[in-house]
Amino acid sequence: MLLEGGRIDEAVAWYQQAADCGYPLALPRAVQLLHTAGRTDESLRLRRFGWEPDGSIAGPWQPRAPGGAPGRSTAGEGHVQTTARGTVTY
C-alpha cells in the first residue's frame, strides 16, 4: 500500500521497526521493497550490510588494521573493549 503511494521511506521505516521487534522477515521484505521501487543500489547495500543504529542503511566497512586507523568507510569508529589480553576493537 505504501509502495503504491510512493511512500517507500515510510514503508522501510516500518520494516525496520518490525525488525527491531524481532520479526525475522522484515529485512528481506525491506530489501525486496527497495528493489521493486527501483532503488537497487540501496536494496543491495541493505541486504549486504543491514541497518545502522540510527536507521540509515549501513555502508561497506573493513576491520581496523592492528594499531592503525579505523578502516570503516562510513561514520563510526567501532567499539573498543579492554580485556585482560589487551584492547579489542570491533
| Tertiary shape | globular
pLDDT below 50 for ≥5 consecutive residues: which ranges?
A: 72-76
Task: Calculate the terminal CA-CA distance, rounded to whole Å.
Answer: 39 Å
Helix content: 25-40%
Q: Please, how many helices?
A: 3
The strand line-up of the biggest sheet is 1-2
Determine the strand fraction and express it as a percent band.
Answer: 5-15%
Number of strands: 2
* Rg, nearest Å: 16 Å
Derived structural class: mainly alpha
N-to-C order of helices and strands: HHHEE
Query: Mean pLDDT across all residues, rounded?
Result: 78
The structural domain count equals 2
Major β-sheet profile: 2 strands, antiparallel
Question: Helix and strand layout, with pairings?
Answer:
Layout: H1 8-20, H2 26-36, H3 40-49, E1 80-83, E2 86-89
Helix pairs in contact: 1-2, 2-3
What's this, in brief?
By secondary structure, the chain is mainly alpha-helical. The protein has three helices and two strands. Helices cover 38% and strands 9% of the residues.
What would your notes on this structure say?
About 5% of the residues have low confidence. This protein is mainly alpha-helical. The relative contact order is 0.10. The protein has two domains: about 60 residues, no CATH class; about 30 residues, no CATH class. The protein has a two-stranded antiparallel sheet. The chain starts with 7 loop residues before the first helix and ends with a strand. The chain has three helices and two strands; from the N terminus they run αααββ. The protein is about 40% helix and about 10% strand.
